[in-house]
Design a protein that fits this description.
- This protein is an alpha/beta fold.
- The chain has two domains: about 130 residues, NAD(P)-binding Rossmann-like Domain (Rossmann fold, 3-Layer(aba) Sandwich); about 220 residues, Dihydrodipicolinate Reductase, domain 2 (2-Layer Sandwich).
- It is about 35% helix and about 25% strand.
- The chain contains 14 helices and 18 strands.
- Strands 7, 8, 9, 10, 11, 12, 15, 16 and 18 form a nine-stranded mixed beta sheet that branches. Strands 3-2-1-4-5-6-17 form a seven-stranded parallel beta sheet, with helices on both faces.
- Helix 1 packs across helix 12, helix 6 crosses helix 13 and helix 12 crosses helix 13.
- The longest helix has 18 residues.
- The protein is globular, with a radius of gyration of 20 Å.
- The termini are far apart.
- The chain binds NADPH dihydro-nicotinamide-adenine-dinucleotide phosphate.
- The site of NADPH dihydro-nicotinamide-adenine-dinucleotide phosphate has 33 residues, from helix 1 and helix 12.
């Protein structure tokens, strides 16, 4: 069995640590390191296996290399923040360790997350005979694997994909983001973007939206908003014949109201302002006063539904399919002390790591999820807590086309 170092002890780090610990035949030794060691210790105390804990500043390459040299793991699982992706990739190259993450790099001073920063590391990883797997969460991650599965088994040509992410959970608080508020707010205050006929089309933030009737009665009718999301950047390259890719996410009217007010008063800005002689980024300050997403776990009830609606051709006939997962917040909390948002990210992170460590997915270089065989990953989703279904996609595509053709 193998050794992993997990970096990051937030909501996702907690789930990854729990899930890796449940698979000792693959994850023989687990080191959990983060900026604040006490958070690692708190997670380790919940788990019935030895978890080694360390503190590390993942922005510091030399410090991370020293940690990696001390433990000599087979893989580093990065579930810190997107800002740490490049320093952690550098550290992995220097220490000779494989790399995996769940979100693409974003410069702190420029909210333009893109694979353009990480893809150029491909040749360095090839030369070092190391592998980097990018985006092994749910979206990106499982959504990319759903696409690879559809391409392999359901279609000869996929023409359109609509990725739809619904969180129908309720935490009972007036306002809270369900993962890192800074990353979440940066994502949804940005312009919307979708890919069509070979180019990106831009919309105003949250401009395009519609009601969508989900395939589960506890999710039912929700307003979905078109956003840019990072998996489209790799999928538009890797899905052959693809004509359109869109990404949609649900938000409640209450969430939108709060967000509008915060934005109107300037609290979502990332440029620092001078406050009594100190430079403070409003969004970072906002993060400090909002509820810690980790504290929502015991409060959140309800379900998530994330999946992809496909339209394309099979054996000369037009076909539609919808592949999705339903996840229950309270069941996740009972299992790993986290709500479904962290769970749906952390389980695929464990599975991606398992694919690498068991060499089911093994290549030198930097890769996205859809570049590998989806079958063993899809099997593991069923096995480790994120079962999926494939249903006729026509009624779902028709709803989208009726409003936003
Ligand atoms: P949290 O904010 O809850 O946790 C982040 C953790 O990283 C904290 O423990 C934090 O430490 C640690 N960290 C931050 N900076 C450093 C640093 N310089 N060195 C060491 N540790 C550091 O975030 P989440 O757990 O919610 O998210 C983790 C990642 O997962 C993010 O990249 C996020 O974008 C991604 N994600 C991906 C999704 C997907 O579906 N693909 C969905 C949701 C999230 P401290 O507490 O001390 O600050």
């Amino acid at each position: 069995s193998k050794k992993v170092v997990i970096i990051g002890a937030g909501g996702v780090g907690r789930v990854v640590a729990h899930k890796c610990a449940q698979v000792p035949e693959v994850f023989g030794e687990i080191v959990l390191a983060s900026r604040t060691k006490a958070k690692c210790d708190a997670i380790a105390a919940e788990i019935d296996r030895e978890i080694i804990t360390e503190s590390v500043d993942a922005d510091n390459v030399a410090e991370t290399v020293a940690l990696l040299k001390k433990y000599q793991p087979d893989l580093l699982i990065n579930v810190a923040l997107p800002y740490q992706d490049l320093t952690l990739m550098e550290a992995c190259l220097e220490a000779g360790v494989d790399y995996m993450d769940t979100a693409n790099y974003e410069p702190k001073d420029d909210p333009r997350f893109s694979y353009e920063y990480q893809w150029p590391y491909h040749n360095k990883f090839v030369d070092a005979k190391r592998m980097a797997l990018l985006g092994s969460g749910f979206d990106p991650g499982v959504t990319n694997v759903f696409c690879a599965y559809a391409q392999k088994h359901l279609f000869d040509e996929i023409h359109t994909v609509d990725i739809i992410d619904a969180n129908a959970g309720d935490h009972g608080l007036p306002f809270a983001t369900n993962f890192n508020p800074e990353i979440n707010i940066r994502e949804i205050t940005a312009k919307g973007r979708y890919w069509q006929e070979g180019e990106w089309k831009e919309t105003e933030p949250m401009e395009v939206h519609q009601t969508f009737n989900f395939p589960h009665p506890e999710v039912a009718d929700r307003e979905i908003y078109l956003l840019y999301h990072e998996e489209m950047e790799s999928l538009c390259k890797h899905l052959k014949g693809i004509k359109r890719l869109r990404f949609w996410m649900t938000f409640s009217p209450n969430y939108i109201n709060h967000l509008n007010v915060l934005q109107n008063v300037g609290m979502t800005a990332i440029e620092p302002v001078d406050f009594q002689g100190q430079q403070i980024a409003p969004l970072e300050f906002l993060k400090a006063v909002l509820p810690d997403p980790g504290s929502l776990g015991p409060l959140t009830k309800g379900k998530t539904c994330i999946g992809c609606v496909f339209d394309g051709i099979k054996d000369g006939e037009r076909k539609q399919y919808y592949i999705y997962n339903i996840c229950d917040h309270q069941e996740c909390y009972a299992e790993v002390k986290s709500q479904a948002i962290s769970y749906t990210t952390g389980v695929p992170a464990m599975i991606g790591a398992k694919m690498m460590l068991t060499e089911k997915w093994k290549k030198d270089g930097v890769f996205n999820m859809e570049q590998f065989d989806p079958d063993p990953f899809m099997d593991d989703l069923n096995k480790y807590g994120l079962p999926w279904q494939v249903v006729d996609g026509k009624p779902f595509l028709d709803q989208l086309l009726a409003k936003n053709p």
